[in-house]
Amino acid sequence: MSRSRSASLGPALHPSLDPPWGSMHASGAKGGRIGLVLDLASAAVIAAVIAVVLLTFRDYGITWDETWHLVYGDYILEWFLTLGADTSALCYRIDFLYGGTFDLLGAIVRRVSPLSGFDTIHLFGALVGVLGLLGAWRLARRLGGPFAGFMAVTLLATTPVYYGHMFNNPKDLPFAVGYVWAIDALCEVVLHLPRVPRRVWIRFAILAGLAMGVRIAGILLLCYLGAIVAVLAWQRLRATGSLAAGLRTVQRLGRPAALAMMGAWVVMLMPWPWALLDPLRRPFMALGRMSRFTIHKRSMPFAGEEMLTTDPRWDYLLHYFGLKLPVLVLVLVLVAVGLAGAAWLRRSRVPVPHQRARAGGVLVLAIAIPPLYAIVLRSVLYDGLRHFLFLVPVLAVVASLGAVSLPRVLARRWPAAPRAVMVTLVMLALGASTMIVRQVRAMHELHPHQYVYFNEIIGGLPGAYGNYDTDYYGNSYKEGFAALAEQLWRTDPQRFLDTRYLVTGCIPDFIAREYVHGNFAWAKNASEGAQFYLGYTRADCHLRYERRPELLRVERMGTMLLTIRDLRGDPVAEDEDEGGEDDTDEDEPKTRRPRPRRLGNARRQAGPARETKRSEEADEP
């Protein structure tokens, strides 16, 4: 690839080095053409995702966190517009502990959008998710060349847990996007060491600050930078035996690194009113509060047992990453880790360039430190891997580097058998392509509930049912409400036109009211005369009113996500003890009602039964 082409799309590494883990770079004009084709293929994947987003963003429901963040974004905007006179953003629920990067931008977009509030934020969030695909491509291409970039964007786009959260997760998904871009900026820093251009430091400061401005956990990015400077100083001291040399390294790199950290801190504070009023102490106060967040203490299914969110098992994240990520991603990550480990073991015989080792060190820090921190401190964990979604794009990058490395290693191991190597590579490519196609089919079958995906290791979604949380975010309620209306219209159209139906469910009131419209009204529980009940599987809500007939189910892959029960007719004695509303102590937020849209995809077929104790408490959003 030509020097100008490499510079325009992001050089793989320092010009004097080969890309780490092996790349698909080729020299000369042929290599340039191959790189261009791969870059165009990556662009085609991103364009396809954008097209699907534009066609389907209205299909997704309202998740439990969304309303709070929409209101918080409005409050932040009002704080700035009133020059601080409106102080609602300083004390709103616990949301003031979050930075406002995404929420403020979302509030601005909603003010100018012709769409409803929720449709707008779903589209905006999905497009931010597409930026995450671009970030993964850039990082993988920087480290492994165009083929790695293509593999990274393809693997991430077909990872259901990432794609599904793109539309209605207002904090974990934007943080994942900011994290992968900040890791790319950090890799650019280490690949330019010891002479890092000012623009590179500035880029890291901006991107790290944006990530921290979504979740304060992004402060780890500054810790990674500090650790890199400390390691370089130690290596210099060890190589020279001079403490003065080590201190000179700290002085030479520490000053620009400290300035970059300060710049990131400023960027983080800009959309965060509460922290702006005490910029040195309050971010750390928020970090401490989030590390001990126990407001959602409850029992949840995990590995076939019940587990408290405040007392997670040490292998909680291992389970969810091992079962929620596509098998192809897991295999390629293991390949990359294995090859990197083998290279580390033979480092005494084959010297590893410093830039390569530093880039690998950044990825190790980015992936290993957050879960180790959570395990050691026994952090509160719940809702699958949602709070660690930010690792998924980086894992996709590592998987892409494994895909790049394998051909080079096979060619080096068996140089005398090029045909055998070629046949092996063709078979591996066909197998990987088949797995990617299966992923796309699974995502289509799960739509719009891609985030409930489980891989083949556990038997897919049917195998996870009852053993792990599936639709913990309530995305299936939109489809449930629409399916109920469609069913009533289809079975009794004359009565439907002049009847007022009362519905209840295991869902916060303020979200339910966004779904009920026309001749439907919301009731907090059956005692208020509710005629239908909607309950998803979280907190065993689907087991309430189980003596009443089941009218419909929202299900995917033959597995129930939500049940709709008919409460009409003679009451059952136990109904009085089975409250139907979602139990929340929060005040109802005020938001605009989204445009109604019918999505009658519920089915009647029975799904696998779950034998578990009925919860006596409603779920918490």
Explain what the structure shows:
The chain contains 22 helices and seven strands. With 621 residues, the protein is mostly helical. The longest helix has 29 residues. The N terminus and C terminus are likely disordered.
Main attributes?
621 residues, mainly alpha, 2 domains, five-stranded mixed beta sheet, two-stranded antiparallel ribbon, globular
Provide the residue-averaged pLDDT. 86
> What's the Cα radius of gyration?
26 Å
Order of helices and strands: HHHHHHHHHHHHHEEHHHHHHHHEHEEEE
Strand content: 5-15%
Q: Widest sheet: strand order?
A: 4-3-5-7-6
Share of helix, binned: 55-70%
The shape, in one word, is globular
Distance between the termini: 52 Å
Structural class: mainly alpha
Described by strand count, sense and barrel closure, the largest sheet is: 5 strands, mixed
Supply the number of structural domains: 2
SS element count, helices:
22
By DSSP, the count of extended strands is: 7
Low-confidence stretches: 1-27, 579-587, 590-621
How would you sum up this structure in a few lines?
The chain is mostly helical and 621 residues long. The chain is built from 22 helices and seven strands.
